[in-house]
Design goal:
Helices cover 41% and strands 17% of the residues. It contains five helices and five strands, in the order βααβαβαββα. It has a five-stranded parallel β-sheet with strand order 2-1-3-4-5, with helices on both faces. Helix 4 links the parallel strand 3 and strand 4. Helix 3 runs parallel beside helix 4. The radius of gyration is 14 Å and the shape is globular. The structure holds 1,3,4-trihydroxy-5-OXO-cyclohexanecarboxylic acid (DQA). The site of 1,3,4-trihydroxy-5-OXO-cyclohexanecarboxylic acid has 10 residues, from loops.
Amino acid sequence: MKIYILNGPNLNMLGIREPAHYGNETYQALIDRIESYGKEKGIVTVCRQSNHEGDLVDWIQEAYFEGADGIVINPGAYTHTSVALLDAVKSVSLPTVEVHISKVEEREDFRQISYLRAACFKTITGHGTSGYLEAIDALMALRAEAQTT
Ligand code: DQA
């Protein structure tokens, strides 16, 4: 099983940016944790981060062409603005989980809209960086379910 883990703008600043919302773990420490979790579960994790919307669109398409089984995406602020990311996820029809480290539903009004959510089978918010591992579990469970039906 192969899963793309995509992170949007400013997530490379984890550990530095607003620790009250995003905690103290650095982006690199998060990626190390995701990769060792993937190894433990026997899956390939392809981890990418960009501050540019088009890169994220390209990687969603790449996930499809590389035969990925699913996508975990934290689009950062593009969650609240990007129809392009919604269209990209709809285009590839890969099972996708939306992750937010912070509890977005308890934050500003402008964070209450997620364009991407309509194309995701699950959204995880406010579980800190563990949300990424939960998203991997959700994709594995979905696949296991599909194999038994
Ligand atoms: C975020 C929440 C977004 O509103 C914000 O713009 C981010 C991070 C989160 O992980 O909680 O960059 O996606």
